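Reading group handout, session on sequence-to-structure problems. Before we discuss, look at one worked example. The prompt was deliberately terse, the way you'd type it at a terminal:

> structure Dihydropteroate synthase

The input record follows.
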Amino acid sequence: MGSTYNLVGLPERDRCLIMGVVNVTPDSFSDGGVWFEPRQAIERGLRLAEDGADIVDVGGESTRPGAQRVSRDEELRRIEPVVAELARSGVAVSVDTMRAEVAERAVAAGASLVNDVSGGLADPAMARLVADTGVGYVLMHWRGHSHEMQERAVYSDVVGEVRDELRQRMDAMVGEGVDPRQIVLDPGLGFAKRPEHGHNWALLAEIDQFYELGRPLLIAGSRKRFLGRLLAGADGEDRPAVERDDATVALTTLVADRGAWCVRVHEVRPNADAVRVAAAWRSGGDDLTEGRADVAERSGQ
Ligand code: PMM
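And the output record:
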């Protein structure tokens, strides 16, 4: 399973990893505003680690469809103290940013992973920063900023095009000095993918095609609109974001069984249970020694 990739500074487990989300933003689609103050965001991150997050992903810029960009200074103000305090507490931290300067400051503050939803396209300095620091790097499939991505969600073969575009981006990053072993790939569910066209489900159904690229996969479907659409009520309205957690857990179980390296989720505990169920399911019970001991260890229990 996902443990054999050995990304520097990140935990290794014989199961799919859990990345818990802390959005230090007033406007993220699923939890905007809830953890906006640094103190609340730090507490939330520590809580997610206790709940079983292997990595805590800290982001200061909303990427919901239609969102406008925040300034670099504001993004730094939001995330830097949160990254620093979580890292100091022993949490493996990932920084969700498209800006090389923000990534650089976050890595200096202790982040072990740069999670760039633009796959290096939003900031030409990102590749160099990743190469120079040697930090792990999530390269997501992306076709443009939030205000323009939905109109770019035009595909004749969504799986083939996303796979080829990920390969091109990976080649470009490696061409600028990034070691391929630093890279984690992400098909970018919800980013230039339209629920009404089934793009997200097509990518999930063909997840095996992404393993052909030879890198670990991060899947981030938590609370996304394609789940809301799937669970629409009789009135035709999408299920609201905060009521999509059970569906998220189901998705986690399925992608963990299909070998995903990590899932990025808002509600950690049930997903942490789900990846353990998937690991036991895959191994046929051969390796049940770990249990949740890793979580107890970290929280000093
Ligand atoms: N989605 C969001 C934010 N960051 N990072 C990665 N690697 N992949 C994603 O799909 C992704 C991401 C948007 O969701 P949120 O607003 O709930 O954080």
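Points for discussion. First: The first helix runs from residue 38 to 51. Second: DSSP finds twelve helices and eight strands in the chain.
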